[in-house]
Amino acid sequence: MTAALPFQTAKQLAAAIRKKKIGCLELLDLYLKRVETFNPALNAIIATDVDGARKRAKAADRAVKAGGKLGPLHGVPMTIKESFDVVGYPTTWGLTAFKDHKAEKNSLLAQRMIDAGVTLFGKTNVPLLLADYQSYNDVYGTTNNPWDPARSPGGSSGGSAAALAAGLTGIEAGSDIGSSIRNPAHYCGVYGHKPTWGVVSPKGHAVGNPAAQGADIAVVGPLARGAEDLEIALEAMAGPDEIDSRGWTLTLPRAKKKSLREFRVAVVLNDPHAEVDRSVQDEIQKLADFLGKSKAKVSDTARPDFDTADIHEVYMKLLRAATVGRMPDEEYERLRATAARFPAEDKSSLAQMLRGVAVSHRDWLALNERRHRMRLAWDAFFGDYDLLLCPVASTAAFPHDHEPDRVKRSLTVNDRKVSTFDQLFWAGYSGVTFLPATAAPVGQTADGLPIGVQIVGPQYGDYSTIAFAKLLEKEYRSFVPPPAYR
Questions:
Q1: For the CA atoms of 175, 176, 179, 185, what is the dihedral angle to 10 degrees?
Q2: How far apart are CA 375 and CA 107, in angstroms?
Q3: Are strands 437-444 and 191-194 parallel, antiparallel or unpaired?
Q4: Coil, helix or strand for 90?
């Protein structure tokens, strides 16, 4: 059964425009009306350019009428994460000091999506400095989860995922260094793809400095209501920037497998360094059982040959080392002092992350060497298995928690309070070694919150992880709109 128009995939929307079943302006106005109705309580979309978008939609309608070649996303209304520069829009990253800052040039990703035909009409909310699993800041306020407004939609691409789930936009784009695409997709029941590191240029994804390049581990990529939309968007946005393109071109291998039974899959439900709630484990186990019945090769014991405590330590240190550059000086000094108070034997997530604040270049090189040994272990693993399935996060969407001291924040996992920093394990498991990972909806908790799975593939195997998500969407579970927005 075809979904109601606002919840259709971007591919379906583009097809409807191409077949002249709906006009570009008509479709944009439909979404704008929904934004007017639903966004005040959701606060996912925090800036719009209605007049400019309607002008572009009219031009898109003229292009359809003229019968020329159209882009793959021609006329599809799009919003984009606030952290991407778009001409005329604010780029603040939640910093009040930048609340009046307007971009003078489009980020490369935004421009490539515009070139693919989208009608960009707004921006979506983020946490301060993109550094939280929630999406709130002093500039724009708090974004709520469309499945339960008392809960977080995730972060840092929380506004992106919430807008998609609520049917307020056609397609989205976000960024990910700590699961900031995957986590909101999981919490809101949509699709998200964290590309292989370096596949999509981050040019123009930087506050106050559009020339800045992306940090180690950090990537930018698509979110959508359909897995095929991820593929279409990745094709549009991937590739080097103007300087790098003088020396290299990107050729990602296409997925060769066409059915679930062709895949060799390893399944990880839990880890001693990041306990996963039973509600999440159960839904991934149901998926594993389904794959077994579909004749796929499924193993619940196969793992890459490294200690997961080791990869978590490397990730937490490199994560913080990658993000301190945008940290205010006083915060940096405070965290360095805090890190010095932790005893050497403390291997907690918090201790490792704080130690990353003060990593020297010499120490970074040693960590990078450890990381590359893990890359080799992953590569050997993918000689025997095509994909690894694991949780996106330890729980479903959690209640808003704006406690300023993040050390005091906790999550309830299997009726036990655990540090929120433990959630980062599942972000780094694939992310620190540059691997692609697709988040896809696979179920719900007993109280109706979405559950996703993280589909991890070999480096540059982006189209394979997305292909697997496409098969799951067709044969297992697809996007389901939250009840209050249908």
A1: 20
A2: 30
A3: antiparallel
A4: strand
> How many CB atoms neighbour CB 74 within 10 A?
19
Return the SS3 of 444. strand
Q: Provide the token pair at 148.
A: 């339960």
- The domain at 5-260+465-485 falls in which architecture? Alpha-Beta Complex (3.90)
**Contact indicator for 1, 7 with CB cutoff of 8 Å:** no
Q: Cβ(218)–Cβ(194) under 8 Å?
A: no
Nearest to 89 by CA among 168, 78, 240: 78
Identity of the residue numbered 78: M
Q: Which helix (H) or strand (E) holds 29?
A: helix 24-42
Beta strands at 450-456 and 219-224: parallel, antiparallel or unpaired? unpaired
Rounded to whole angstroms, how far apart are CA atoms 199 and 249? Answer: 10
Q: How far apart, in whole angstroms, are the C-alpha atoms of residue 125 and residue 162?
A: 9
Using pLDDT thresholds of 50, 70 and 90, give the confidence band for residue 54. Answer: very high
For the chain, domain boundaries: 5-260+465-485, 265-411
Cis peptide before 419 (omega within 30 of 0): no
188 vs 315: CA distance, rounded Å: 25
pLDDT of residue 478: 98
- Confidence (pTM): 0.97
pLDDT tens, position by position, 350-359 = 888 888 888 8
Convert 171-202 to b/e letters by CB count within 10 Å (16 or more is b): bbbbbbbbbbbbbbbbbbbbbbbbbbbbbbbb
Asked if residues 76 and 118 have their Cβ atoms less than 8 Å apart, the reply is yes
Cis peptide before 360 (omega within 30 of 0): no
**Cα distance from N-terminal residue to C-terminal residue, the chain:** 15
Write out the two tokens for 165.
Answer: 């789930």
How far apart are alpha carbons 233 and 225 in whole angstroms?
A: 12
SS3 of residue 343 by DSSP: coil
- Three-state SS annotation for 278-324: HHHHHHHHHHHHHHHHCCCEEECCCCCCCCHHHHHHHHHHHHHHHHH
